[in-house]
Design brief:
- The chain is an all-alpha fold and about 110 residues long.
- Helix content is about 75%, strand content about 0%.
- The chain has four helices and no strands.
- The protein has helices spanning about 5-25, 30-60, 70-90, 95-110.
Length: about 110
């Protein structure tokens, strides 16, 4: 059984999201579909960015106690940080998605 580190798993998730976003933009037929796909890709990018920023904060929290620590907690924290990033991005985020969205639409015009 191969153990995959959290950083490797996050990198693979980022690569998968970028690939899905590119495929979604290429397969979008109408202008509205292209805009929806671009907006979704921008929000996914912001979610990953926010999760990468939150990760180090959660690494500093001690995990001592009778139920703390271990491999499972590391996996749970990784999933929690990913979902927290998605939730923050969905609620408006920090403004990165808006910039990325505009740039994706510019790239489609070319």
């Amino acid at each position: 059984m191969q153990v995959v580190s959290v950083d490797t798993a996050q990198a693979q998730a980022i690569d998968a999201q970028i690939g899905a976003a590119k495929a979604g933009l290429q397969n979008a037929g109408s202008s509205d579909a292209t805009k929806r796909a671009a907006r979704e890709a921008a929000e996914q990018f912001e979610a990953v960015f926010i999760a990468q920023m939150l990760g180090p904060m959660f690494e500093t929290i001690p995990t001592d106690g009778p139920m703390g620590g271990g491999h499972a907690e590391g996996m749970y924290r990784s999933m929690f940080v990913t979902e927290a990033g998605k939730a923050i991005a969905k609620q408006g985020g920090i403004g990165i998605a808006d910039q990325v969205y505009r740039e994706l639409l510019k790239m489609q015009e070319v």
